[in-house]
Amino acid sequence: MGRLGSWIEPFPEGIYVKPADAWVDPMQPKAKALVTHGHADHARGGHEAVWATPETLAIMGVRYGEQNEQPVAYGETVRVGEVDVSFVPAGHVLGSAQIVLDYQGERVVVSGDYKRRPDPTCEPFVVTPCDIFITEATFGLPVFRHPDTGAEIDRLLARLNAEPERCVLVGAYALGKAQRVIKEMRLRGHDAPIYIHGAQERLCNLYQELGVDLGELRLATGVPKDELRGKVVVCPPGALNDRWSRRLPDPLTAMASGWMRIRQRARQRNVEFPLIMSDHADWDELTTTIKEVAPKEVWITHGREDALQHWCMTNQIKARALHLVGREDEDD
What we know:
By secondary structure, the chain is of the alpha/beta class. It has helices at 54-64, 149-162, 177-187, 201-209, 263-268, 283-293, 305-314, and strands at residues 8-11, 14-17, 22-24, 32-34, 49-52, 69-71, 77-80, 83-89, 97-103, 106-110, 132-137, 168-171, 194-196, 217-219, 232-235, 252-256, 273-275, 297-303, 318-321.
C-alpha cells in the first residue's frame, strides 16, 4: 500500500478517506460525512448522509434539522465503501466519539476532541491502539495542566454560600460545558433550582431526554431579581456582560473554560471568578494518551501543534501537523 496512511488525505476543511469516499468532520457539505461530535467546528448541516453516534445525531438534529442519519453505536462496526468504520468514546461531550478506520491491515484513529478526566455527562475515553493517531492539541503546551474539576466546583459553591445576596453567573458553552457544570454541582450536593439562559434550554432538555439528569432547571429570563439571589445562573459566554446579565442581582461573573488558566483572558472577559474547567485534554493528558495508544505516527489537527509535534519527535514518534481550519473553540 506504500506510505503509511496513504489512503487518508488531510485538507484544510477536513480529512478525506479515499477508499470510503467519505470525509471526517468536514466543514463543507459532502456526500458522506463521518462526524466525531456535535460542536459546530466539527458538525455542520447539509451533508447527504451522516454517520455518527445516536446522541451526536440527536444534537445535530436540534441544531440543523433533519438529515440522512446513519447511527453507529459505540463498539459497532459498519462498512463505508471499502473501510470498516467504528466509533469509540472520546470523553469530550455527550455522544462524542473517536472514529476508528480499518483498511487493508492499517488502523487510523481520528480522535476528534477528547479529554481523559471523568465527566458525569458522557462516556469516558477509550484507548484504542492504532498505526496513526490523529489528535487535537488545543491545550498542547506544558503550561496547561487543568486542576481537579471537583475542587473548582467546590470553590464556586463556597463563594456562592459566602455571598448569598448575589447570584453566581457562570458562562459556559451551550453544548457540553453547561450541562457538565450543572451536573458537577448536583454531584456535590447543590440541589437548588439552577437557572439557565434561553439559548441553553434546547440542549439541556435534550441531555435530560437522553438520560443525563440535570435536576430542576428554570429559565432566568423574566424572573424577579430577588428570586435569583443566592442562586446559580448559567449562560452562554457571550451573555456574561451584555444587557441580559445587567438585570441580575449583583452577579459574580464566572466562566468555565480551560482558557481561564490565562489571567489575561479572564480580565478581557471581565470575569471575576475564573473557573478552570475544560472539555479538552491538557498537556499531560495529550502526552499520556499518545504513549498509551502507541501509534507509529501522530497527526496533529489543531491547536498548539508545534509543541506537541516536538514532544513526539523527542520521544521517537513520527509526527506531522495537518493545519486544519476552524478547529478551536475559544470558549472551551
